[in-house]
# Entry
Amino acid sequence: MKELLHEAARRAQLYVSNIHQRRVAPASDSVARLEHLAEPFPNEPTDPREVLALLDEYGSPATVASTGGRYFGFVTGGTLPASLAA
# Structure
């Protein structure tokens, strides 16, 4: 579990550190790539590192960059460290 949490933190830190180089709204091709996640749930457990990698690879690029200073959208709540991590 400790290694998985470190990997999640590493990926989150990379996401936040690159937020200013990203578009605020996701590109249409990034949103289209979410189709990769549309598959039936497996019958057997999946390695959590695989799940984390899939969510980061396909999900992260399709998010709105609301943690960056260029986001002028709706009031979505605070970005305190706890809410950002969640």
